[in-house]
Design a protein that fits this description.
The chain has 430 residues and is of the alpha+beta class. The chain is built from 16 helices and 14 strands.
Length: 430
């Protein structure tokens, strides 16, 4: 596919913290911990990506058809819910899932003692090498990359045409001018769902992190006290971008949740939405004929710098090392089947609309939808930034979200908010 991976790889949120595609599911009870029911092995999957709940059920049904001695118990938590907290609660109550999701990097280090080592699994050699980076610790692979995902502003082509926008905006000034044109044509420019902390804290705040000359060096600086968010040029510019979405967005952004945000966009009530290719199945369901594409979330007027999408591996499937042997064996086999069998590979691209993280899975624009195809195009052209929010200190995302929501609600100034972001990092860094 010609994907160019940087540090971690290309596309995916699915929601991630968004998305946190944290996936997994719980074992029936801790005490019996047998993982079997009616003579069958029951594999518990905790899925932090609510938008693929139906597709995941269909996928496990297809596996069960070929392996009648295995059944699945899937729990999907995400969207407006805190998937990470729900997963922690599962482990705390001895109802740990057999398979769940992990975002990698900092999150992988946090959960490492729960992971089965997957280095010897047959699928490892088929993955894009850089797609394995987020879950590789001390040379061992602990997670299977779910897919590649990416985001920016998805836009409604028909509404852009209606407003007379003939050239797609790829710089900050062009985006602001496009928003003004849409407003003048009686169209709400942005559907903004700032009731969801991750839309602001993970996907939004990722942009200024990604724009740094060296994101890893900047993050290292935050950890050792030589960098600051307050006063940083790109964080300041992110607030400029945020202000544009607020000026030209729907009313009541703090009470607009994920489903409402996507529905506003899908039904043509707004022309742009800050989300990723993971919304494609929902768009297809709500408005199958909607013509959509991606434009960047630009912080500058330097086109070479601004005309990029945020693309990476959103989450990874992991296997709980404490699961009963029968569950573990079935879980490992299912993960391998998912990326090697013709049945599953077809479902991943056609039904999940996933941009594959494996060289051995092919996907056409017809399969993955217009948003996925656009991501693929940007990725193949090397016009991508990677996801830095997976490198936040544990728990920082939610606090960042609360600080940014206070800004959106006019409870704090830009300067106060940036100070609060620095304070959160300093408090939670290891």
């Amino acid at each position: 596919m010609g994907f160019k991976f940087k540090k971690f790889s290309l596309a995916a949120g699915v929601l991630s913290a968004t998305l946190l595609l944290a996936t997994a599911c719980s074992n029936e009870t801790a005490s019996d911990n047998s993982g079997s029911k009616d003579g069958k092995v029951v594999v518990d999957i905790f899925n932090g990506k609510v938008e693929i709940a139906d597709q995941l059920k269909a996928l496990t049904d297809a596996y069960t058809k070929e392996h009648p001695d295995v059944s699945f118990n899937i729990e999907s938590v995400g969207g407006g819910a805190d998937g990470s907290a729900a997963l922690k609660a599962k482990f705390a109550s001895n109802k740990a899932p057999d398979i769940f999701g992990n975002g990698g990097y900092q999150e992988a280090l946090t959960w490492k003692d729960k992971f089965e080592d997957l280095s010897d699994q047959p699928w490892v050699k088929d993955a894009y090498e850089s797609a394995l980076v987020p879950m590789t610790i001390d040379g061992k692979v602990y997670g299977q990359p779910v897919n590649l995902e990416g985001y920016g502003f998805a836009y409604n082509k028909e509404l852009f045409t209606k407003a007379g926008i003939t050239e797609l905006p790829t710089t900050f000034t062009e985006l602001e001018a496009a928003a003004e044109k849409l407003k003048a044509a009686g169209i709400t420019p942005f559907s903004i769902g700032y009731g969801e902390w991750w839309v602001l804290a993970n996907h939004g705040l990722n942009v200024p992190f990604a724009y740094q000359d060296d994101a890893d060096a900047f993050i290292k600086g935050l950890n050792d006290g030589t960098s600051k968010i307050e006063g940083n040029e790109y964080f300041n510019k992110y607030f400029d971008l945020l202000d544009v979405t607020l000026k030209y967005g729907n009313k009541n952004p703090l009470t607009t949740d994920y489903n409402t945000q996507v529905t506003l966009f899908a039904t043509g009530e707004a022309a742009m939405i800050q989300q990723g290719n993971w919304i494609q199945p929902m768009l297809d369901k709500l408005n199958p004929n909607l013509e959509v594409g991606f434009i960047p979330m630009p912080l500058s007027d330097d086109k070479e710098q601004s005309d990029k999408l945020m693309v990476d591996v959103p989450t990874n499937w992991v296997v709980h090392n404490g699961a009963p042997d029968a569950d573990k064996e079935a879980a490992l086999d299912f993960l391998n089947w998912m990326v090697t069998s013709d049945t599953a590979k077809t479902m991943l691209v056609k039904d999940f609309k996933y941009v594959p993280a494996f060289k051995t899975i092919e996907a056409s624009a017809d399969d993955i939808g217009p948003l996925g195809a656009e991501l693929q195009k940007y990725s193949q052209e090397g016009k991508t930034y990677t996801w830095q929010f997976m490198k936040y200190p544990d728990g920082a995302g939610q606090e960042f979200g609360a600080s940014l929501q206070a800004y959106v609600g006019k409870e704090s100034t830009r300067e106060e908010t940036m100070k609060a972001l620095d304070e959160t990092w300093n408090k939670l860094k290891k």
